[in-house]
Amino acid sequence: MGDMIRNLGKMYMNGEWVEAASGKTREVLNPATGEVIAIVTEGGVEDVQRAIEAARQAFDESGWRETSARHRADLLFALADKIQANADELARIETLNNGKPLREAESDVDSAVSCLRYYAGMVTKPHGQTYEVSNPNMQAMVVREPIGVCGQIVPWNFPLMMSAWKLAPCLAAGNVTVFKPSETTPLTAIRLFELMEEVGFPKGVVNLVLGEGKTVGAELASSHLVDKVAFTGGTETGRSVMQAATGNIKKVSLELGGKSPNIVFADVDVNVVVEYAMFGIFLGSGQVCSSGSRLLIQDDIYDAFIEELRARTALIKVGNGMDPDTEMGPLVTRQHMQKVLHYIEIGKQEGATLLTGGRQIVEGEFGKGNFVEPTIFTDTTPQMRIVQEEIFGPVLVVQRFKTEEEAIRLANDTVYGLAGAVFTSDAGKAMRVAKQVRSGIFWINAYHSAYDQAPWGGYKQSGIGRELGTFGLDEYTEVKQINFNTSLQPLGWFKGKQ
Ligand code: TXE
After folding, report:
1. Which of 180, 237, 346 to mutate to test the pocket of ligand 1 (most atoms within 8 A of CB)?
2. CATH number at residue 229
3. What pLDDT digit, counting tens, does each position of 362-385 carry?
């Protein structure tokens, strides 16, 4: 046990740190070494129900939802400051628990800080509308109010950053939360809730539950005491969250999987764009919802591009994320690694050419972790499963195209619609393609960049709703119209009088 972080990570509900009623615990592992780095309490349905009741009471009775926007902003600013003050520790925990290289974890911590500050700032700015309506005596207005108790479920690929993306708009808008991190990567969330306690969020407003998706997560999605469920994770799980939410017609926002196309036209500088293609797929070991996992290359530069891509991919330094030289870390769990390796087998069986990689790295210390070589498949056809399905690992599939129309057709030919990109020096072509690709996020001559101001979310089976920007705050508010009659006169609708 090299880097033991927690002897017993607990849940936080109603202002107290508690263990699961069942007394069950779970080991949390370092994906680079297989070592146990923490033991955490393993919540169950009974525990999440307690947290939901605390949140319900806090929303209905504590006065939190009537607090001033300024007060909520102050708490969020203070939380951002606390995260910043503990940035090194948080980044280190993230790397040990998720496996991502430290430089990626540090960037996630920065993003969490800036997202909290963004929503803290936004909530004190004007929002709402007034309308001129047909009756001049009526003043019509729209106000935004919090939705209520929010169940928030996040995955393991960006544990801290996703927590900030979920918590910041939710709390800024005056909601309360029952928050569930992934059972695989709960450690930065536990630390985050300790910081929230220090900052002074009132009892019951912020609640942390730990445990499995199919018990704790499913209860958050189905409970009639929860008004909204916000979920980031796989499309299949998203489907079941959406179904579970029907019982009380919960508001639902879902950020799901993708198979995003990265389109490269022949007019680009191959040396420059190859690195963007690599960044698009190998960041986070390909475990990123927006990964550019399908690379579409135009015929004329295909051979040169592929050769450069193969050569540079073979040089990627895979290793333990704590090593400053590491460029790509392990996959998050053994089980997930097996899934990715299985897809690599499927690709071979389907007849695609394995250009590079394709193996688990087992030599020496690597064998204890979940390391897979950066992998590229060429000679694919659109029907192949490796082209259609989300692999969520360091596996790039290449598709070849001749014309702009063909690129757009291939780009749109999956059930997903999260992200996409085009690389070209022709501005008109770039814009035409950007408008034709059916996705919620699209980059021109860039990949993966995300900004607090810009909405994040998907078309098609990549999700519902948007995070970040003003859109992200809207997802945590109800819209109310208020009609104010400024001149009350007899209505005259019914004739009979006493
Ligand atoms: O995700 P899950 P998994 C994709 C990716 C990956 C696949 C499966 O393709 O290979 O999903 O990964 C909670 N009700 N993405 O199984 O199941 C769970 O505890 C409520 C894309 O790890 O989606 C965790 O907190 N909640 C993605 C969270 O859902 C449930 C990121 C995510 O787990 C639940 C992760 C249920 N029935 C995986 N079952 C992205 N969009 O970035 C599980 N959970």
Report:
1. 237
2. 3.40.605.10
3. 999 999 999 999 999 999 999 999
